[in-house]
Amino acid sequence: MSQLSLSSLGLGPVAASPWLLLLLVGASWLLAHVLAWTYTFYDNRRRLQCFPQPPKRNWFWGHMGLVPPTEQGMRVLTQLVATHPQGFKVWMGPITPLLSLCHPDIIRSVINASAAIAPKDKFFYSFLKPWLGDGLLLSAGDKWSRHRRMLTPAFHFNILKPYMKIFNESVNIMHAKWQRLASEGNARLDMFEHISLMTLDSLQKCVFSFDSHCQDAKITTASPSLPVGRCGEDRECLHSGRNVVRAQPLPSLPHRPPRSSPLRVLSNDPENRCHSSSLPLTHDTTASGLSWVLYHLAKHPAYTRSPAADVPRPRPSPKDAHRDDLAQLPFLTMCVKESLRLHPPVPVISRRVTQDIVVPDGRVIPKGMICLISVFGTHHNPAVWPDPEVYDPFRFDPENVKERSPLAFIPFSAGPRNCIGQAFAMAEMKVVLALTLLRFRVLLDHTEPRRKPELVMRAEGGLWLRVEPRS
């Protein structure tokens, strides 16, 4: 009886070949990783069974497209939050689960975790990295800690005093333009367009000591969006332009922030300018917050006529607002916060946990899980906010605030990675709103805005309101 051997098969020399050994090692490595991934996938799937999930749209696509970035998607999300007030599980395709969290008790375990345990998820923010680099928004670990320590003093409330004059100047330019347009019969304005330019103007002057005259210059939108295939080309153009800007000295303004201002020090140091690369994003979030609060006050004019209202009363000199004035506008602050609750500028925050996290009810979020902290869902959760779709500034009366979790209201995020510029944004919003309501009547347009959540909360086709100068 003949015996089967490698020699009889002509494989003897091959068996001794290092290439076969390399092939076997590679195949073993691949098999080990496939088995490890398979075990982790099914183990996580088993552990996630304690989290509810809505019906899938498709066995392959999972829940993709269930909540599109449209008004209809916002309504679907509101219904999901009402059905699953603690949060729910969704599948992005057949193998990628996500957890959407929308209750303060559940969010606390993730959002208050250290930046090492719950860093920002690279999957959701990676497309921003070619443009923003490893600045404060996208960095992690020691680099993030170093950037945060360096930038925190720049946004202390006491630092804002020199910027109040800049806030006033920028809003005065915008209001002069509104006065001119109203006199020409063009009183119907897209709030996002005008306020975005105004907040950009303020930010450039405060942070970079640069006046681009962006509110006066004619700006043409070449394209509202760009094909994904052009990302590499556009990135190279951006990097080339950034190098040119870094090589140029910053021009002087008539009223520059004091030399001791950390923002000025940061922006004047070529090595540190990259750390402030994410700061321009703040002008869009501030513009979103301002646009929506003007919409709500136009929709609910009774609040500006309420005995508690502190904003519409004529002042001796409505030309400027000062820092001390901000503390005398408690009802305006309540109006701003209620608008930020209904329309948070950043609707969702993404985190990827690097270790198992136990939530208060005993359930476990497995290591490696992507958690979507739904700011919009938390703010519209009927288990947290009675009648969540109603605009009611008195929710933020100090007595009512005491009864709620501090994580019930998170328009600027919370925990160690909260928004570093929230004091800056709130101060600017209150200055702009106070002066706007003193100088103009803001009225609803005939078109009801439709929400459009992107990186910031916008409105489809713009948020249109009518303005009438006060006599």
TrEMBL record:
The keyword Nucleotide-binding does not apply. Residues 248-280 are annotated as: Disordered. Residues 1-16 form the signal peptide. Its cofactor is heme. Keywords: Heme, Iron, Membrane, Metal-binding, Monooxygenase, Oxidoreductase, Signal, Transmembrane, Transmembrane helix. GO terms for molecular function: heme binding; iron ion binding; monooxygenase activity; oxidoreductase activity, acting on paired donors, with incorporation or reduction of molecular oxygen. Heme binds at C419. Pfam families: p450 (PF00067). InterPro entries: Cyt_P450, Cyt_P450_CS, Cyt_P450_E_grp-IV, Cyt_P450_sf, Cytochrome_P450_Monoox. Gene3D superfamilies: Cytochrome P450. The chain crosses the membrane at residues 20-42. GO terms for biological process: arachidonate metabolic process; menaquinone catabolic process; phylloquinone catabolic process. The keyword Ion transport does not apply. Belongs to the cytochrome P450 family. This is Cytochrome P450 family 4 subfamily F member 2.
